[in-house]
Structure formats: C-alpha cells, structure tokens
Amino acid sequence: MLKINDLKVNYGGIKAVKGISLEVAEGSIVTLIGANGAGKSTTLRTISGLIRPASGQVEFMGENITGLDPSSIVSRGITLVPEGRRIFPDMTVLENLKIGAYLRHDDLNEDIEWVYDLFPRLKERHWQLGGTLSGGEQQMLAVGRALMSRPRLMMMDEPSLGLAPLVVKDIFSIIREINKKGVTILLIEQNANMALQTADWAYVMETGTITMHGSGAELLADERVKEAYLGKRTTQAQPQQ
Amino acid sequence: MNRTKLSYKDYQNDKKTNYAIGAILIVALLGGIWLLEQTIAPTHIVFSILKKGAIYSLVAVSMNLLNGFTGLFSLGQAGFMLLGAYTYAIFTIPVEMRDSVYQYFDGGIIQFTIPVIAALVLAGLVAAAVAALIGLPVLRLKSDYLAIATLGFAEIIRAIFQWDKLGVLTNGSNVLRKYPTFSSTLYPFLVAGICIALICLLINSSYGRAYKAIRDDEIAAEAMGINLFKHKQQAFMISSFFAGVSGALLAMFQTTVTASTFRVAMTYEILLIVVIGGMGSISGSVIGSFLYIACSEWWLRFLDQTQFINGWQVPLLRTGFRKVVFAVIIMIIVLFFRKGLMGDRELSVSRIRAGLHNLIVWFATLPARIKGAGRRKKRQAGEKTTVTDTAQKTKQEGGADQ
Q1: What pLDDT, in 10s, does the model give residues B328-361?
Q2: I need a labelling partner for A4 at 20 to 30 A (CA). Which of A140, B183, B184, B339 fits?
Q3: Choosing among B11, B216, B279, B339, which should be mutated to test the A contact, i.e. which has the most A CBs within 10 A?
Q4: Which CATH architecture has domain A2-85+151-229?
Q5: What ipTM was reported for this prediction?
Q6: What's CA B318's distance to the chain center, in Å?
Q7: 3-state secondary structure A22-39
Q8: How confident is the model at residue A239 (pLDDT cuts 50, 70, 90)?
C-alpha cells in the first residue's frame, strides 16, 4: 500500500533520514520504533507532506506522492495523528471532529457516530472545549479527528506519549479495533513493548537508518531489541545505584 | 420543577422559537430607531452615536474575523477603510459637481458615476483586491511582524492618497465632498447588519472552522489538510472587503473624505473595541463599538470641559483629560479583564431566554429565601444546635421551598 524508496530528508545541513526503504501492507499494523532523534517523526512528517524530502520516493497505492502538499495527501487517504496530540484547544470536541473531515463534502453523521461508539467519553463531552479534556481524552480526540477523514492509512506519532499505562493499554486496544475495520496503521512508538505486541510488522530505526525489521513477535524475542528498547535484565545484571 | 436554574443550552435546540424571537428583536430594534427618529430632533447626538456605532461595529467585526478568529494580528484596518471611502467617493460624486470638487485638477479624470449600492460593493472589492496583493508577501509573516507590516502598509496607502501627482483621481490632500450620503440612521444599521450577518454565516461554516483551527494550531490544521496560505489569504481579503464597505459608510457619515482622518489612531480605536468586546466574539465587538463610541463622543465628553460644582472647580478636568481616562481604562482592561466583555462567547437568543428565565426565578423565590435565611439566623442565635443539626434542617427546608 505504502512504499518508501531510499528516502533522504535534511534539515538544513543536518541529515535526519539517511536513505530508508520500508513497506506497509494493506490492512496491517506496522510500527517504527527507535530512540529519540532516530528520524521516526521526520519520516512520518515527510510522508504526510509537511516536509519535503531531499531525495527518494514515497509511493501510495501505486502512485508517486513525493513532495505533494499536505491537503492533497490527506485527500488521498493518508492522515497523521501528530505527536503531542495537538487538538484544537479553543474549539469544542464536535468542532474538532468536524475539522478532521474538512476535505470531505458528504454527510458526516455516520462517521461521528462511529467515533462516538469507539470513544463514548467524547460523546459525553461533545460540547466541551478541547483544551479542557484530560491527556487521555485528548489522545482519543486526536485519533477520532483523524478517523473523520476516512483514512485508508492512519499514521500515529507516539500515541502513548505522556499517558498513564492503563490509558495506553486502552489506546492500543482501540488501535487494533480500528485496524479490524480496515484502516491500515503506521505507528511510531518509544513504548517498544506495547508497539511490538500490537504490530504485524516492525522496523527498528537508529540515527536515520533502518537497522532491523521483522514481525512484531520476532523482534520482541530478538536479543538486540531487548537490550536496546525493552530494558532486558541480563544474567549478570548489576544492581543500579 | 426540579431544576430552577437553566443554562442557555436548554434553549439551544428550540431553534424555531429562537429564530422567531431573533426576528422579533431585530424588527423591534429597527422599529425603535424609526420611532426615535420620529420623536427626537434629528440633530440630537444620539443619532450620530448610533450611526457611527453601527459603522464601527462592522469594521470591528471585520477586524475580529482576522484577529480573533483566524489568529492573524493585523493592524491595517484603517488603510482598507481609506480605500473603501475613497473608492466610494470618487465614483459617486455627480458629474456636474466634479468641477467644483476637483477645482485644482480640472474636474478630475473620472467623468461618470455609478449607483450608490454598486459603489459600496466596489469599495469592498477594491479593498479586497489590494489585500490580495499585499497578502502575498505579508501573510508569510507571523504575529508581531505581521502587525508591523500591515501597520506600515496603512501608512503608505495614506501617503499615496495624499500625493499631488495622483490628484486627478484622489484630489490630492484636498477633501472629496458632494457625494450622496444618508440621512436616516436605519441606513448604516441595515448595511452593517447585513454585512455582519454574512460574516456570522461565514464563521459558522466549515471555512470558519478552518480559520479557528489555524488560530488554535497551525501545524495540526495543516495535517488535517487545510491549506494554510490559501485560508489566511481568504480571511484577509474578506476582512478587508468589509473594512472597505465600512470605510464607504464612514465617508457617507462624515460627508467629506480626507486621507488624514484614516490614521493609525483609528486602527487602535478599532483594536480597542475588539479587545473590550472580546477577541473571538462578534456580539462582543458590536456591543463594544456602541459602548466605545457613546463614551468617547458623548458620556465622557464632560471630562474635557472645566466643571463647577457649587462654585468649586473640579480639578484635573480640562481638554485632553478624556484621553487620560481612556488610557487608564485600557490598562485596567488589559490587566484585569483580558477576555473583554464577552470573551469568546456570543450573545444569542438562547442565552437571553435562559438569562430572563433565571432572573424571573430569582425574583420569584426571593421572599422565600429571605424568610429561610431569617429563620436560619434566628435558630443559630437562639438555640445552640450542633453544626450538623443545622445543616440537616436547612437542607430539609430548602427542599420544602422548592
């Protein structure tokens, strides 16, 4: 569905992404894990058209979408749930959802009902200003808003950021539920454990390049991944001071 | 009834009644003005307050569309009003009057007139067209820089219109006059009212939501597929269009036009109205503008004259003191009432209905509450009951009252 070929992105003189290739199959959940500064967010922002790549290709449903502007990429069915939620604080929950469907010109009621079914909390608070919601509710709103554009591919940038473990669990189960409804998901996470458990396929990114890939279960069992991201306790573990 | 206090939301879904009441209120307002015109001498100051208030409402709402709803801090409003005022005047001065108006420029180069309504629309269109041109470079700037750039633009426009070389069109630094004006107060109310209604429709449409999204978070808005530049340009042009129309109305109100009236101070006045009324509230801007105009032209005039009470001269009152008081008021608002009168809420029919309902309930239950409070006090003073006892008793009483 989505195919990235040797993508390179620079911020001025800094090379953030140094030629990565990856593929997202239709109907799957694919995750991209890695430490801070590995270039994960930059990759997502490039796919959604917010940044222009230096070279390389982004292909979606067989069409080259490299360097298109964000609005035409959204209208092709790729939506980004940005890092840190970024809901609109001075607009009501309902207005936030409607903005998600900005490029659509058909009836929204069905989709609004779907989002309310997924997140009953949002229905309760539909008249409240987005800024007055709690962190978890804001994340729900951000996901709901993205769903309103009827995406074929939903990209999520660290949905677990700053949320309590229980809430993170909820969010991930909803991600699976959305996926079952036929939305392909590309997920960026620091919470490698949760992400790998959820994902069908995973890529590990380090300083601008992809170092490993495999199915979620495979990587979860991989020694190197365990050491780097899962906080593996080795046999000669020394008590930390 | 269980709940005595209602919120405006309780009335919000009753749309038919709301529209009917709204229509009645508008007719009542226009009828009231008409009645006023029949009874009071037309030279009374109240009419000039109402006219100017209506005109300033329109320009304040147009500025609010940019500053309050789209989050673009622009200070070019006086410049766009100037464009509108001049466009209107230039195209409506009757041909036979042109020789006397353009006396230093051989009657000017334009030797035709267009109907008043067409000139009003043209005034807006010229302002919007200039806004489109200026927007190309200027809208790439943010916050303070945008404010400085638009402020500079307004000053440049003023200088250009006073330029001698363009005298055949603008009459240089001389006044334009003898164009058609209005005498009835209803005229600016109708024109401004229609324009403000159009702006309301725009804000409640999906475009309005996009503007608000840009105001709240540009990056998120872009990720939702909103083209930032296109929408900013759109909002800038629409705001300028209505500023142009209000400029034309102001020209009609003043009966003469000179570029020197459209100074930066005028933009500040409008900004002040928007802030007093509340950024992001249309009804706030309207209320603010009538309040501001009434204060500055009428109610606070006495501050500029020396006053005597029983032969004792009140200190400080002299020419210019009004401005000092205004400056203090501005500081108080900015320091303590940053949200203005309305914040970002609107004065809607449902709010008025809920307010009236609560007021009636408040008065109706007043005697009962006074009695209850009296009894409670007596008991507290007389018997030495425990705190929990009293609380329980008052609770029961409260239930009985309802």
Answers
A1: 887 888 888 888 888 888 888 888 888 888 888 8
A2: A140
A3: B216
A4: 3-Layer(aba) Sandwich (3.40)
A5: 0.87
A6: 29
A7: EEECCCCEEEEEECCCCC
A8: low
